[in-house]
Amino acid sequence: MTLSKSLVQPYRRNQLLLGAGWRAFFAPFNIAYNASQNNTALGPTILDLQALGPFNTNAMPAGWYDLGWINSYKMTPQSKIGSIKSGYRGVTRQKVRGEVGEEFEFKFREFTRMAFKISTGCEIFNMLAVPAGNAQSVGPLSATGATTFTLGVSGYVASNQAGGSLAPYVGSPVLYITSGQGASFNVNDKIVCDVDFIASAWTNGGLAGSNAIPIYPNNAPNDIDFIRKTSDFVGRVTAVVTGVAGQDVLVLSQPFMGGGSSGTVNPGPTTPPAGSKIQKMSGYLSREGGTFVMDWSALFVLDSLDGDQFVQYYPHVSISQFKDVANWSINNIGTTDLTGYELDATLEALGFEDPLDGETVVCYRGFYPNVGQDIAI
Amino acid sequence: MIEAIDSHYRWVKSRILALNPNRTVVGIVDAMDWPPKEINFESFYLIVLGSSVPQGMFSPTAMGMSTVVQWAWMIEGDDLTSATRGRNRGDRYRKHWTMLKELMNGLYPYFCEKKSWSAQQDGTGAIQLTSTSMNPVEQIWWSRPRIMPSTPKEEKSGILVGGIQTSIGQSTDQITS
């Protein structure tokens, strides 16, 4: 006699979801545009889960950035399902959906500028290279930045295809600057590229730059470098090539990422606009406090050993809490133990009205089964 | 179940040989048969130590199984020639780390397809290995490596013994009756 399934618990081995953890990808959210719309579908970086999945995590759709090695991803559903009770003894007659919400938390094992920005939820200030001897005591960020360099007519190219002296850098991001200015740069210089901030144009306030930095009426910062101080268009120089089409070229290690806010167009700009200038920078910082809150679109991907892919797409997320610069222990053989430090972030999924049917949701969880996997049950 | 050990061995061996075609990967031995009577120095052996069923993955029909294996090698060094005297065979250190690097590369990415392996003689008498995928396709995985230190016994013998332990995980064959 065949033994009962409840006794022997057979299972299909390729239906187990075994993987090596989640991978996080973030994309810009058009803060300024979304602020002026009633439609919550305008602002997020929309991801077509039907056309684009399963995702090749080595070649993500345009605008999606790999956040590196993350750890301890945990989501906390906060949606409420209420009960309608009636009749004798108040038995539950119906269940109805109430609040919709979700929070999630994870730790960034890689300590990067973007990880810093997402986990703190703040605008990140680029510490511009200040001329020697120009330290001031007005405020931690009040110093005027060092020399600006002019963007060349060829501007920024996310993936160089030019040959000649740029042939070794095919596929690399490059920044054209005015001829002769290349001599001012060295390999490994950190730079930022964005436009000047003209305070007089912001007397009525608004959201400035591609990061939608709030400017208050009659209180615009009197700092021409303000947009570059808050810009995401930063990079590290890996080579300087002179005399290319009458310009010099800075070859960068990574393309520009972030940005994405515009009051007039959607999606917003994710590269430096025309007329941008370049300045060197020494580092970056966040300020705990202020009024600025960062918004993003987010995607978490889990690939199983069998080739399934489980994804969680949040069209609109924002910071809930910057929790910690947490420790993680590294046990060494020997007398000195090293400690790792990771940024711990908690974020909340915000509401999104699905254009398909108008329903209010906060997250899409998709599953792409592997070849040969049963899907009916 | 033996397919998991065989598949892990074939996977790691192929990656070691891709990095260093001159390396010898001898074969799989049970712990009771280690060390063998005739030793190939500077060659990899895979020793099978023992298995267990991990908590949380037990079902009478098909369960998870974790098998501890150890990749091992012995190095005597060769700086000294016969009838000469010297302080030590100093190149054991360097050879050991070279082999360690080859094996660490071989273990990547810590999972592979589980296949059934068989050996057949071809028309010339040579042994040909053939593999067959499971139906449906299955994967096996193995844990982060534990690098074994040399024991004092081996140090006094002048032989450096290298080892890396890992645990191979799999789902066992399904038992239906």
Strand and helix map with partners:
The complex is a heterodimer of chains A (377) and B (177).
Chain A: H1 5-8, E1 23-28, H2 31-35, H3 49-52, E2 65-66, E3 70-77, E4 81-86, E5 91-97, E6 102-108, H4 113-120, E7 124-128, E8 149-157, E9 174-178, E10 190-194, E11 206-208, E12 213-215, H5 226-229, E13 234-244, E14 247-252, E15 277-286, E16 295-303, E17 309-330, E18 338-349, E19 352-353, E20 360-361, E21 364-368
Antiparallel strand pairs in A: 1-2, 1-16, 3-6, 4-5, 6-18, 7-15, 8-9, 8-15, 9-14, 10-13, 10-15, 11-12, 13-14, 16-17, 17-18, 17-21, 19-20
Chain B: H1 2-19, E1 24-30, E2 43-52, E3 64-75, H2 91-107, E4 111-113, E5 115-121, E6 127-133, E7 139-142, E8 146-148, H3 152-157, E9 160-171
Helix pairs in contact in B: 1-2
Can you characterise this structure?
- The complex is a heterodimer of chains A (377) and B (177).
- With 377 residues, chain A is mainly beta.
- Helix content of chain A is 7%, strand content 38%.
- Chain A has helices spanning 5-8, 31-35, 49-52, 113-120, 226-229; strands at residues 23-28, 65-66, 70-77, 81-86, 91-97, 102-108, 124-128, 149-157, 174-178, 190-194, 206-208, 213-215, 234-244, 247-252, 277-286, 295-303, 309-330, 338-349, 352-353, 360-361, 364-368.
- In chain A, strands 1, 2, 3, 6, 16, 17, 18 and 21 form an eight-stranded antiparallel beta sheet that branches. Chain A has a six-stranded antiparallel beta barrel with strand order 8-9-14-13-10-15. A two-stranded antiparallel ribbon of chain A has the order 4-5.
- Chain A is globular.
- The two termini of chain A are 25 Å apart.
- The mean pLDDT of chain A is 91.
- By secondary structure, chain B is α+β, with helices and mostly antiparallel strands.
- Chain B is globular.
- In chain B, strands 1, 2, 3, 4, 7, 8 and 9 form a seven-stranded mixed beta sheet that branches. Chain B has a two-stranded antiparallel sheet with strand order 5-6.
- The two termini of chain B are 18 Å apart.
- Chain B is built from three helices and nine strands.
- In chain B, α1 packs across α2.
- Classes of the chains: A mainly beta (377), B alpha+beta (177).
- The A-B interface holds A 2-3, 7-14, 16, 18, 20, 305-306, 370-373 and B 59-62, 110-111, 136-139, 141, 171, 174-177.
